[in-house]
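step: validate -> pass
step: tokenize input -> pass
step: predict -> running
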Amino acid sequence: MDKKEIKINRMRSVKEVTKEYNKLIADVETNEFYKIDLTNRVNCYTCEECGHITKTIDIDAGVTPFMFTCEKYKETAMCSCKNITSNSSFFNDIAPNQAPTFEWYRPTLKQVLKMRAKEDGLLDHILQGGLDYRKRGVEQIQPSSQSETKSEKKAHAILFAEWCEKNDYVYLPQEDLWCDVNQERFTTSELHDRFLNKE
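step: predict -> pass
step: emit ->
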């Protein structure tokens, strides 16, 4: 990615990114490309150096990379691979007895808007149909009622996003955590509880 492209990303307005994101979501709902079976859609990345297999699973339909940083390096930076990338098995489960440790997902609009300040190309990747990753087991916001309509859920999400911005909570996509002015970290679930309790 060149400097010109980075500059364009940084200058995008909330309105522009929101428009592109909504276009993407409409495409996801109608384009045959995204109509795939996500049942156990796993991928195995084998490290070129140490041979460790990092197993991932797709929970949303979208584009994922064919290379991934070795999990052992990502977790401890102590393995011999020294951050060498791992190669994809292209959705062949070559480690059936191993559970996925990362999942590929489509970020929410709020999360995408936070990417505007980044210079790593993630914003473009997401808006072009790509997925982001996180550790498995990350708690997600649960709707306050299973009978909520789509419009009610959307309104609830907007209120939550506005509350986060008003209270200076910043989303850290690489950690999948929120940070306040005192640098204290919160999971989305923890922050959502604060929002509900208006702490």
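step: describe -> The mean pLDDT is 79.
step: cleanup -> pass
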